[in-house]
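[SOLVED] Need 3D model of a two-part complex

Original post:
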Amino acid sequence: MKYMNLSIEELHKLLKNGEVTSDELVQESLKLSHELQEKCNAFVTILDDQKGVCVNDELLSGIPCGVKDNYSTKGILSTGSSNTLKDYVPFFDATAIKNLKSHGAVMVNKTVMDEFGLGGTGTTGHTGIVRNPWDTSRMCAGSSSGSAAAVAAGVYPYALGSDTGDSIRKPAAYCGIVGYKPTYGMISRFGLFAFASSLDHCGVLSRSVKDAAIVVDAMKGIDENDMTSWDSSNIHLYNDLTDNVSGKKLFYIKELCDIENYENPSDELKKHLCIFKETLEKCKELGIEVDGVSFDENLLRALPSVYVILSCAEATSNLSNLTGLIFGPRGEGTNWSEMVKDHRTKGFSSLIKRRLVIGSYVLQSENQERYFKNAQRVRRLIVDRMKELFKEYDGLIMPVGTGAAKKLEGSVDILDDKTATLEEHLQIGNFGGFPSITIPDGFIDSLPVGINITGNCYDDQNVLNIAYALENSMPYKGQIAKEGKDE
Amino acid sequence: MSSEFTMEKVEKLADLLLIGLTEDEKKMIFDEFEIIDQNINKINSMPNIQNVEPMTHALDDFVFELREDEVCESIDRDEALANCDDQDDGEVSVPKVVG
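Solution:
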């Protein structure tokens, strides 16, 4: 019997009834981990010695899961998929991990990511590229690439991710699964390797909205070690999940979703936006009102650049402690600066180096006003516009990216001005700390595509309920990746 | 393109960051920055942009609370040193960095 393709509720019932043991689930998950590793290179570490735990009434108890390699895990290698931390073993658990463990979760592997979360392709991790289980010639997107691949392939029902620009929500779309980042600060970031602190979110990848709700309920909570965390003890995402969403109101950004606005659009983009329109019809059938609204074109066009400026600037600061002198492999050289340069030059991927140079430039005192401060100003204008719309609407609904997973060959993680905003609009969710969830909504040429719903801060329940209702109206819940799937 | 952002500037920044770049990497940075700069020019031309308060964080309603000034659990020295390449008598040993 294969169990790992089941939902958390189904597995919990089997465990409680004694039809399977936690140990058996762990063994199955480990076996599947090794099989997927051969095919997709999704893991930095597979915990072959992991054992099951005693099962109690907690839904997650005894069930295997995966953890992105930028979460600190006590006594277990945590590299951030970087050569600069290739041997780093934390002596403490991130708060989110500690919380999950207290609910009985069993970690079976650490998943590959883009180095320190800075990329969006799954190609910059120090252990090699991650391949998409639906088509191994394609990427999973990133940075939570390994987590997305593993959940989609049915290694376990969920894995942890982190999201600074779209790092949970885009891989989820490319892999045909659910990706949810709750409101900023609902889950503590203590022990998560910092990339861009004002944009970083913890979250989860799963195969259903309900599973995502169960996992975030277990991860969240105020934490004295993260002063940006807040008390969410009155929020019970799983218990309060309902598909009664009649009367809700959603909006989409007209300028980005109208095919007429794109010069020579590809067939893929046409299909993607067509699927989006079909999904909007499903919303209407559920009793949800959907309107197209306009967004200032200058703000939309500026969005990807604003993200690059802010995230690179914050990353330049956060990653400055990677010298190789105090921890990490020490570089070669006759003095400290040669050693640091050797450590960074050999240790960082090309993408990180590029990002740090840009971050350093925009932070120089003579450039701060023009680049960094102006990017922060545009961030406020975008967030203010969203908050104004959230007074009237329950959420923003948008297609994720410009289509299905891209080919690995020939891909570059660099801004493309033509479709950049449609590709990168999920960054809005990070600018405002908004709760945001991606669910699968169709296929293009046998590859899954996704849709995203983003709501106002602290309104996670509303966002999840809409996603839950929509998910129930489509046939993609719980799907497992298989190559060459028929449409 | 900002007249300030030249290939020489890219090299200088990389030197300051103690990062070595290949010629391809330098060119990619230069090309990517050109797009950023074009967008920043548009932002600069937006009316009253300078009057907008820069947004530095995701949420505007943080409640900052200082904890009591009490000694709390600290890091175990042996555990902290476990990831060091070089240590001596319970301290991290680093190359000479001053004078």
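Edit: The helical segments of chain B are 7-16, 23-44, 77-81.
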